[in-house]
Design goal:
single chain, three-stranded antiparallel sheet, five-stranded mixed sheet, 421 residues, globular, 8 strands, alpha/beta
């Protein structure tokens, strides 16, 4: 099925949407809510400002050239496009394509269909099919994968939602489509995403995707916690080693971690090594300094100068000084979030092994989005998966257990836990 879709989008101001939140004065209620949501109060104010910028409509209608595989029998592309609408709106002042953007929706069964669909619009499929094969070989029917590419000089977006993708993941309504559109905007502003440091390229896409996708403060709190906890665990690590809570497991700590993940860092490793989460928090902090204007200035300047010079010129302080502030913000955020109960202690110097994030990683399954069980909970669930009796973050939220049972987050004797719906 092939359709041309004209999308109505929403937007506020075009070039500068967010004031400096460092000067904002939060109310007592704001402080109370931020504690409930396990985040710094300025993180909450940042989310509100971003969402407010999406509330004013515009008549501009970017077009997507949609290609939908015949194996898709439900409406998940429509759900995904609803989130994408916000991404288009937010970045419209910086990225407004004049040509239609080929957009492909498919499942793990559609390898040959995808090759043909790419060829139909004149795109060489070799690299894309290699990525398809790698992801499906790891996760099979449970694969979820999204990508933004400009092969052959033409931007296109891809979305794979496996026929057995976990229900809790809710791939179509997650941050992924706004995340990928953010990459399109990055490339437009910076000339190429390759000039941006790894931690920013993937971290900022994850931050903006999450903040755009979350329609309520409660949703943002939940998605934020999922992201910064689970995606701070390098996917290759088993048992979990959450970098958000185990800075000592990173040789050289957060500051060396960010310095290592510069613009020359391997694109294949960037993201699954923990950069999604730690870069998310770094971007959240930068948004509190100069809002969206700071982001736009940084990326635009990176087109004509090294990124460290660009970030120093944007924020008025050298990268080493800014990095110390970012590292402090990450540590502060970690203290506000309830960690999973099976997180291992940070290794001591005498017993530590080489940090997994310096050893290289592979693209493997998405981390599980819930806190893991206390030692007393013997329900047989795979580590990290949502299950009845386990801790949860927000009362009233619903989801599915690892057995696909409908569950609700409720207060049980003063503790929030998943219970059968």
């Amino acid at each position: 099925m092939r359709r041309i879709l004209a999308m109505a989008v929403t937007i506020a101001a075009i070039f500068s949407l967010t004031p400096s939140l460092a000067q904002a004065t939060p109310t007592t209620k704001d402080v109370s809510l931020s504690r409930k949501y396990q985040m710094p109060v300025n993180a909450l104010l940042t989310y509100r400002t971003l969402q407010a910028s999406l509330s004013i409509k515009t008549k501009i209608k970017p077009k997507l050239d949609m290609h939908i595989a015949p194996t898709i029998t439900n409406n998940w592309p429509k759900d995904l496009l609803a989130v994408l609408d916000g991404g288009i709106a937010y970045w419209q002042g910086q990225y407004l394509p004049t040509e239609t953007v080929p957009t492909f929706f498919f499942t793990e069964k559609d390898r040959e269909w995808l090759k043909g669909a790419l060829a139909e619009v004149g795109i060489d499929s070799e690299k894309t099919i290699a990525n398809f094969d790698r992801n499906v070989s790891i996760n099979g029917a449970a694969t979820t994968w999204a990508g933004s590419s400009n092969e052959n000089g033409r931007v296109f977006n891809l979305y794979l939602n496996g026929t057995e993708a976990p229900a809790w993941l809710n791939f179509p309504s997650s941050q992924v489509s706004a995340h990928e559109w953010t990459h399109n905007a990055q490339a437009e502003m910076a000339g190429s995403t390759s000039v941006l440091p790894c931690w920013y390229k993937e971290g900022s896409a994850t931050f903006f995707g999450t903040a755009i996708a979350a329609k309520t403060e409660s949703d943002y709190a939940t998605l934020r916690a999922i992201t910064v906890i689970w995606q701070s665990n390098p996917y290759s690590v088993n048992p979990p080693n959450f970098l958000l809570f185990n800075e000592k497991s990173i040789a050289g700590g957060y500051e060396k971690y960010f310095n290592d993940r510069d613009a020359t860092y391997s694109a294949d490793k960037c993201g699954p090594d923990g950069s999604y989460a730690l870069g998310f928090l770094a971007t959240e902090y930068l948004m509190q300094l100069k809002g969206k204007k700071g982001q736009v200035d940084f990326m635009t300047l990176s087109k004509s100068m090294p990124w460290k010079s660009a970030i120093a010129k944007t924020y008025g302080k050298s990268w080493p000084i800014l990095l110390k502030e970012i590292a402090t913000y990450i540590r502060t955020s970690a203290k506000l979030i309830k960690p999973p109960t099976d997180i291992p202690p940070a290794p001591s110097k005498s017993t530590s092994t080489p940090s997994p994030v310096t050893e290289g990683t592979k693209q493997t399954p998405t981390p599980q989005p819930s806190t893991s069980p206390s030692p007393a909970e013997q329900d047989g669930a795979p580590p990290g998966e949502a299950a009845i009796g386990r801790s949860c973050l927000d009362a009233g939220k619903t989801g599915f257990s690892w057995k696909q049972e409908p569950i609700t987050c409720k207060n049980v004797s003063g503790t929030l836990k998943w219970v059968a719906s």
